[in-house]
Amino acid sequence: MNSKLFDSKTLGDQVTAREKVLGFLLGPLGPLLVNAVIVSYLNVYYTDVLDLSGAWGGLFLTVFPLASRVISTASNLYIGRVIDRTVSRQGKARPWLLVSAPFMGLGIIAVFGTPSLPMWLQLAWVVLAGNLYADFAFATYNTAHLLMVPLASRDPRDRGILAVFSNVGNMVGAGTMVALVFPALVLPALGVNRAAWLFMACLLAAVALPLVVVEYYFTRERVTTGQTSAPATPPPARRHVRRAALTDRFWLVYVGWITLFNLAGTFRNISLIYYANYVLGDYNDGVTPTLLALIGGIPLGVGLFVVWPLAKRIGKRNLTLAGTCLSAAGNLLCLLDPADLRLVLTGQAIANLGLVPAAYVFTALLGDVLDTLEWRTHVRADGFTASAIAILTGTVGTVAGAGFNLLLGLTGDYRAPQYDAHTDITTGFDQTANVQSVIVFAFLGFGVVANIVLAVLLVFLSVEKTLPIVQTELAHRHRYTDADSHHIADAALPATAPPSSPLWPHTP
Questions:
Q1: SS3 state at 423
Q2: What is this structure's pTM?
Q3: Is the pLDDT of residue 100 over 90?
């Protein structure tokens, strides 16, 4: 077989326009859209289409996600370890994009294609299909995808631009589809028809699978050069990689920031429909949630064109810090009167404008953090870092859902909507002040607290200050190892320092 068949279509050491558009903008759009649909509407499919809310006395849909989270943690750790030890002329992470492609398609079809079987067989199908998608297909794709920006280039400017392109598809493309198109057009057409949900899954698979392949072919790893044989120095033991990361200040701050940011965002997303129905508008009025979604999408669209020029001028960390403070101020404005539609829309416009740097440029700091970690410890923790981020962000999603439901349950006052089969009308009830307080805290209050903590964390993420020195010394190190390892094509970088190098940092 001609090995060139699997070579990247992006050549050279410089990031190209085709790479930005096809590899980082268009390619990720398919799999991220699939995941956004599953995250947003899989529970609706389970409760309304499959009618599983009463399974195991109502415990199945509580136990299954928690048990799956344990499995996901193990699978993400394993996939990260495999990526760290992958030796390939295509790189260490890129090959796993291609491996994940067919399983992404099969996974979503299996998830939304549960056949009409006895209940225990349906539950078994749900468990197996859910784990196929979450614990193998998407875990493999997402771990590799998270590494494409930091591995594409050592140039901070290139990383920043690639981070913007990579996040546009997720925030604007997949986000718009899930927040606006699905509630308005797709869900009414699907109803509770199993065949319709399966057809929708097949369409998504037909989009996702080829786009994963596009991402594979139009990306290129330049930081960890692809190999055709084993490296001159074996990869460091997993415990050494883990210790290097967990003792690095910048690594801990970055991963902690991403985790808290996702926790706050998940709380907001879960509580949005409740806030629209019971605090800001009327139950299922169809207008209020759309306005909230639009007011979130418009700043993301407008901010796309100014965020990177600003980041180049004042720095990625500083711009994210300013945005975090702005987001906290917007949510505080809403808290003055959480039931005032005009005030809330104004405050949310301000808050969402503050999220633009976090949405588009903060990802680029991961490459800076990993380079600094490599400079300090002689270890690259790419796979472990991607695994840790995937595990933590996935876990906080489960925690946010459980926490919100727990808070509602503790009030003891929440009244679920009532469906009248004779009139085919669903009626929503007014909620007590206690329930409304929980909803307001989840949608607005937690965001204020989280943004204050996030701002404090950013003060300690000063990785850009030392980056020029780090880049210079890493370049010197790599020139040395390339010359020393001429017997290996595209050799990996050994972890021992040349004694005569005046730039080589001492290992702590």
A1: coil
A2: 0.72
A3: yes
